[in-house]
Amino acid sequence: FKNGQSLDLFGPGRHTLSTKNIPLLCKLVNLPFGSKTPFTAEVWYVNKTIKRDLKWGTRSPIPLLDEKLGYSVNVRAYGRWGIRVHDSRSFITQLVGTQKHANSEIIEQYFIGEIIQNLTDALSNYFISQGISILQANAKLNELSQLTAKAIKMEFDRFGIEVINFNVERINIPEEDMREIQLA
């Protein structure tokens, strides 16, 4: 990268970068700039290995209308996901941007937000369209996983990331809400 532009992309392997600078001439050119070159460039390294077994979960309960019960029920959801960077240029320009350092934790938190948003939509639409109760959610985890994976795919692709696996492992109702349901 130079001046915010992606100039080149190196594939796997070893590479030698040369600046084609002439040492004596560089000293003269850099003299007015305090011996530091005004011509800088950045090299970013992107790990393209698959990261599996990433965890996601709802921080707070999601209120969902359960038509069978006739009122809103709070649910929490948890699962795992796996990703890999498939387009380094898109990943760097779209996601990392002007940050000095980007680590997997920052990136994961962004995408967990996307997962939760799309999961909430998938859950709401699924239970209403299927006419089943949220109490039956754990019997439908494979379908809910597939629906959510399909929903998040486009957002991940936009940033050069491929979703390798996505699973909703558990949906539960907080204890106090479950007591209310049982008393009703």
Question: Care to describe what's here?
Answer:
This protein has 184 residues and is α+β, with helices and mostly antiparallel strands. Helices cover 39% and strands 21% of the residues. The protein has helices spanning 23-30, 88-96, 104-130, 141-158, 175-183; strands spanning 51-57, 62-66, 71-85, 161-172. Strands 1, 2, 3 and 4 form a 4-stranded antiparallel beta sheet that branches. Helix 3 (104-130) crosses helix 4 (141-158). The protein starts with 22 loop residues before the first helix and ends with a helix. The model has no long low-confidence stretch (mean pLDDT 84).
Distance between the termini: 62 Å
Which structural class is indicated by helix and strand composition?
A: alpha+beta
Share of β-strand residues: 15-25%
Shape: elongated
Helix-strand topology string: HEEEHHHEH
Kindly provide the radius of gyration, computed on alpha-carbon positions and rounded to a whole number of angstroms. Answer: 24 Å
What is the fold's blueprint, element by element?
Layout: H1 23-30, E1 51-57, E2 62-66, E3 71-85, H2 88-96, H3 104-130, H4 141-158, E4 161-172, H5 175-183
Antiparallel strand pairs: 1-3, 2-3, 3-4
